[in-house]
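Methods, example record. To illustrate the input and output format used throughout this study, we show the complete record for ABC transporter ATP-binding protein. The sequence lines were provided to the predictor; the line carrying structure tokens was produced by it.
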Amino acid sequence: MNSLISVNNVSKSFGKKQVLSSVNFSVSAGQIVGLVGPNGAGKTTCLQAILGLTDYEGDISVLGHHPRKDRVNMLNDVAYIADVAILPKWLKVSQALSYMQDVHKNFNLEKAHEFLAKTNIALSDKVKALSKGMVAQLHLALILAIDAKVLILDEPTLGLDILTRRQFYTHLLEDFYNEDKCIVVTTHQIEEIEHILTDVAFIQQGQIVLAQSTEEIKKRFNIVAVANEQLPQADELKPLFKNSMMGLTTMLFDNQDKETLQGLGQVSVPSLADVFVGVMNKETC
Ligand SMILES: Nc1ncnc2c1ncn2[C@@H]1O[C@H](COP(=O)(O)OP(=O)(O)OP(=O)(O)O)[C@@H](O)[C@H]1O
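The corresponding predicted structure is encoded as:
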């Protein structure tokens, strides 16, 4: 597969505090990767290294460019949303569009107009007069109108209501994504983006603890609603996660034989959030 981003053995410290330790992963065309981890795990630092916004040890290549040494060329084909609230408040929507057209050679004004026409945002509106959700939509219009190969989204829907969050991801798939591009997205609301992810990378204390396609994850992990009389046998198989509620115990298993699990109770495919909780409770995976 055609690798658009490759991160090899990347480490990063702030003073004595190591926040990334030998991080390795790659992202190919067509992949939508969720970088998921608890608060302070190193997600933003990792994305900033990929974008050349912070220095690091190790090697990163984005579309063949070095993010620090060749940043200007790299940014022709990379788009980035860091935070929905960073557009200047005094800016008019029309000025934001002209600015993007002036500074970005791959910005398509017509596409931005088309996108904005689907919203309640007027070209004459100032950013300060827009609601948070509308600022996010404007931001998205500006970013999706860039014909970028790589899109990096760091918690792009933070603070937005559920309808706007859903709309955001729908637009992302319909108006930006195609098989020549890749997206890396961080979020704490994994259940909301699970359906769009092709791959996930779980990060914990600066280390990637699991990096796999969502398809492989669904095959590898199983949730079992364990019957009470089977609890001792189930415990022997060392579940990653165990939850008992109202007399019913559910357990998450990694790489266990399906038939054996079926003997313990009803087996189902876990959500990525279940797998995340299980993997985070385990030291290594
Ligand atoms: N500029 C900085 N100076 C010192 N420490 C920093 C700096 N930026 C981040 N850190 C530390 O690096 C670690 C990782 O932070 P980072 O922002 O990458 O985490 P995150 O996974 O994005 O967290 P969150 O989900 O809370 O946004 C944290 O312990 C944080 O305190």
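Annotations derived from this record:
The CA atoms of residues 112 and 142 lie 6 Å apart.
The longest strand covers residues 3-14.
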